[in-house]
Every structure is written in C-alpha cells, then in structure tokens.
C-alpha cells in the first residue's frame, strides 16, 4: 500500500512538468496536439515558411510540443500564454 501511495505522490508531482510541455491550446485550433504552419501564422503572421521549417526539427510538417518549446527558447516563436 505504501508503494502505491508513494507512486501516486510522484505522479502528482510530475504532472505539472508534463503540462508545461503541451502545444499551446490557443494556437492548436483543431486540437490535434500539433501546430501546422497555418495555425502558427494565424497568431504570428511574421513567421515565414522558412522560419516554420527552421522550427520543424524533424521535418514532418507540423510542430509538436518539444519543437514549440525549442522554437520559443531559440527566439523563433514568441512565448505563449498557455
């Protein structure tokens, strides 16, 4: 029983870290967990296709949560509220 309680506490402490790494909901208009160039440009029209490609580290045509964080840390995308 103590193991379950300990694991529950650890999981609860880790949840905020996972929440910080989500794709911003206000940008993800179709709620699929990734951002397309159209979704990014709707909020940040200054982002060019070349700029988007620079953010798309795995070149799959969308930005996942890790790519959004990396783009924001690199100054390629402005920080977001969510």
From TrEMBL:
UniProt keyword Transit peptide present: no
Keyword terms of this UniProt record: Signal
Domain EF-hand as annotated: residue spans: 51-67
Annotated signal peptide: 1-21
Pfam families in alphabetical order: EF-hand_5
Superkingdom of source: Bacteria
GO molecular function: calcium ion binding
InterPro entries cross-referenced by the UniProt entry: EF-hand-dom_pair, EF_Hand_1_Ca_BS, EF_hand_dom
Protein's name in the database: EF-hand domain-containing protein
Taxonomic placement: Bacteria, Pseudomonadati, Pseudomonadota, Alphaproteobacteria, Rhodobacterales
